[in-house]
């Protein structure tokens, strides 16, 4: 039985927000029945609830980086799906930028959710990374022309000095720049769901009792197979780690990512006031030495040894500028939201599962977002909500905001053929392939710097404060 841990490491998102929704229950007891039960209280669950409420005309929240793959996956995707299929995937992600802007204005929540728009970058830290990034953009230009609306908004900085100045990343060789943005019944785990009975009801069993529903939407990402075992080999655990770094207001000019090769990268953003914190994820220079700590791994109740120390020294090591002026240290104590782990999932074929669940009438899914949910979930939920309402015989009119999304990309669709094709995925082979890719990167110079090695050789028993000191030496 695959269930999330009851005591995960504490994230800055939750600890800093101090939201009343964190433990919110709209009633002491569960109601006996409902038209729609949404299992999962994250971004996908909240988005699905939003669209259902919106189209009828009558949510644990997290934040994230709305950073579409504007070009960087084009070469990979075009090999699998052709130029049109690759651009279809990119257009679906890019549509989230205008949708989020319109949603925030319509609901008047831009300041409340720390939503802002601007440019993001991919900084090439090695020639290898620049060859890959530039090659992806050039392939997209060849196939779709310089006048394509997405091609036009991607620009290149090839001068190393200008790249470092724009990205603020020490040693950046070049960069590609494109647009981006950033951004119940709690504690009620569902233990079992039934098939729909002859009267059209699905029984949803929880630790607090049972409730009948006409339709059930599964938005639990990694944990979907707990209730839908056919997804056991399809949605897989990939543990990532993130930290919150202290910084003065407005220090980071643009959100962005550092690339050393196709495996090793960092990504970061800075929250606006009153938080000002830099949120950084990746740490792959260190984690390639610890593949078993990442994939496959469900241990979100544990820190990864050395990561807090590695993150704490990021500003001094990687940010261009005077050492006295760059960010240093965590915004909170390590185990109080300064550094945390989480399960972001991998999908057996790299794409989420969205739509009606085959051979389970009344069940719908939006899960398996492969660590890239921010520019995928809102549009995916906009696709699921009408399916749910149609199954209930509810008349609705699609709001203009939902209609702004292109059709759901074919690789996202949850079909019986796709499930059948992936059900025998060899998990051991995937884990071995991941270890091999990590081992290849771990041999490269950028994964063997003094900063990395000092953390790797620090005894795990040392407390986090000692590790942070060591990482800065």
Automatic annotation (TrEMBL):
It comes from the Eukaryota. Residues 35-385 form the FAD dependent oxidoreductase domain. Gene3D superfamilies: D-Amino Acid Oxidase, subunit A, domain 2, FAD/NAD(P)-binding domain. Transmembrane segments: none annotated. GO terms for cellular component: cytoplasm. InterPro entries: FAD-dep_OxRdtase, FAD/NAD-bd_sf. This is DAO-domain-containing protein.
